[in-house]
Amino acid sequence: MEVRTCKECKKLFNYLTGPSICPACKDKLEEKFQKVKEYIREHPHEGIGEVAEANDVSSNQIRRWIREERLSFSEESGIGLDCESCGKMIRSGRLCQACKDKLLGNVNDMYKGQESVVAKKHREAARMRFLDQ
Predict the structure, then answer these.
(1) Please, which pLDDT band fits residue 91 given cuts at 50, 70 and 90?
(2) What is the mean pLDDT of the chain?
(3) Coil, strand, or helix at residue 66?
(4) What's the burial of 66, exposed, middle or buried (CB within 10 Å: 0-12/13-18/19+)?
(5) Distance (Å, whole) CA 92 – CA 61
(6) Which residue from 98, 39, 104 is spatially nearest to 73, judged by alpha carbons?
(7) Under DSSP, is residue 3 helix (H, G, I), strand (E, B) or coil?
(8) 13/77: higher pLDDT
């Protein structure tokens, strides 16, 4: 276990995983998240600035929740972020669906190439050999 200083309240705590905030601050942040989530349901057409101001949360924190896919917005909502790859407007996450598909295709292609190399080495190793007399 590691001892760290909480980024929010500056108290020492035993750090396990996740952000460097103590359990008490983590609970407070979760309460704020639930309030923001409820507020967005009641006011679906408000922007990030208005949501942040109404709930006493920074707009960066709301963007972080959107990137983590904890919050998502409908198409008619004015809230959105840019895809980190192509810049297209998205409602949740880091990448648009087209960039996710492209990335997944690249990963699959990479593994297909690896499988053929492994299979080829296995075939060569499994061949029968004869000793010359």
Answers:
(1) confident
(2) 85
(3) helix
(4) buried
(5) 14
(6) 39
(7) strand
(8) 13
What's this model's pTM, rounded to 2 decimal places?
0.69
Q: Where are the beta strands (DSSP E) in 7-84?
A: 12-15, 81-82
For the residues 102-115, what does the mean pLDDT come to? Answer: 75
The amino acid occupying position 24 is: A
Mean pLDDT of 97-118: 77
Residue 47 carries which DSSP code? -
In this predicted structure, the answer to whether residue 115 has a pLDDT above a threshold of 60 is no
Tell me, what DSSP letter sits at residue 72? -
Question: Which pLDDT does position 10 carry in this prediction?
Answer: 94
Cβ atoms within 10 Å, residue 55:
17
Burial class from Cβ neighbours inside 10 Å (0-12, 13-18, 19+) for residue 74 reads exposed
**Mean pLDDT confidence for 63-68:** 91
Residue 122's CB is within 10 A of a number of other CB atoms, namely 9
Query: What is d(CA 40, CA 34) in angstroms, rounded to the nearest whole number?
Result: 10
Q: 15 near 7, Cβ under 8 Å? A: no
The token duo for 66 is 């959107």
